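Re: the request from the purification team.
They wanted to know what the chain is likely to look like in 3D before they choose a buffer screen. I agreed to run a prediction and write the result into the notebook, where they can find it.
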Amino acid sequence: MQHIHILGICGTFMGGIAAIAKQLGYKVSGTDANVYPPMSSQLEQLGITLSSGYKVEHLAEDVDLVIIGNAMSRGNVMVEHVLDRNIPYISGPQWLLENVLSERWVLAVSGTHGKTTTSSMLAWILEYAQLSPGFLIGGVPQNFDSSARLGDTPFFVIEADEYDSAFFDKRSKFVHYRPRTLVMNNMEFDHGDIFADLSDIQRQFHHLIRMVPSNGLIISPKSDMAITQTLDMGCWSEQEFSHDDSGWQAVKRVADGSEFDVHFNGAYQGTVKWALIGDFNIDNALMAIAAARHAGVPTAVAIEALPEFINTKRRLELRGEVNNIRVYDDFAHHPTAISKTLAGVRARVNDENTLNVRQGKVIAVLEPRSNTMKSGIHKDALPEAFIDADLVYIYQGEQVSWSVKELIVKCQQPCVVEQEVDSLVTKIANQASPYDTIVVMSNGSFEGIHDKLLAAL
């Protein structure tokens, strides 16, 4: 039995690789800087040996191959040991291609926003249609027991990230996936730590487009100029579009997006009534429906599946309600994602106000935590992103290289900046009133602010 050791095993992607390798019959172990749940619990239940801290002694003598995560860099003692001893190593995406994806019908979901949610929707639709897909999703899909599985049929759904593959392979992860069905949700500048500008990102996406076969399908919104420019660089595959009279369209029945009609080629396909809100989730749903149709799932079946879809954790997830004050957790860490999340919340709050069900404020709470956000690249777009909030609270973390207080004068609504999470919690709790909606946005743990807020309320 071949022994694989994974560096950076507790990330959702690398943890998914570990789970799939175990299902394939490999002996699997792994190391991370900190071994933490829920991924650690998930892996331990699979019988995978985990070690905390990057130490050479964690690498057993019988290891045949080391899979190195993209968080690893030169100077890491285990990386240096692998290189010095000439131990075979590979990136996670390359291993996945060679061991799983090369013989599968890959449905890849790419884009700046919505990858995790759309991938989860798509995997669920295929599961509902009894196609038992494999999948690897960079989040916790709540319709399944884990974030990854091998699957029993040719179909494999993967969240196709444009981030780089490893310190020794700076190509985007997704160039290793060779999709037959490719979703491109949207395209904006992000990941300023590895991309110089939008054209850098478009170049990587065009590498991906080149790999889709001529009888494959690329699905994208007609309204996204950056995607249009990228497709104009050359496309050799079949195409379908959303936001297009001759393609996929949605017509909202309710302002918050909890009910909408689906149309394709001008013909009504059915109505989705579900627990999710926001135009961005409608867009995600159209992409998932279209991709599933390419894999053979009738549109009516996909529409039937969506009301049973449970949104991915940390995607506008209700963490609790105290004194009629709702506290949501959302992964939004880009101005566009922040704007779309708050627009969806605002639509629901306005509906409730109109019906006199609730009369509350929308309170936005942000931790600028992504590498791009911490560097200040998106700071000028942030004030406009908060347009649908009544109050804004921002955490000035130690790693943020710019003064968040600059936003106070640029925001159209009251904006508070704090350098201590506990102080931030106190100020929010003092300001919140019954029927308010608090939306906490971060791509990290935000020092447990959700539980602290609920306790303070």
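For the purification team: The CA atoms of residues 33 and 53 lie 4 Å apart.
Please add any questions underneath this entry.
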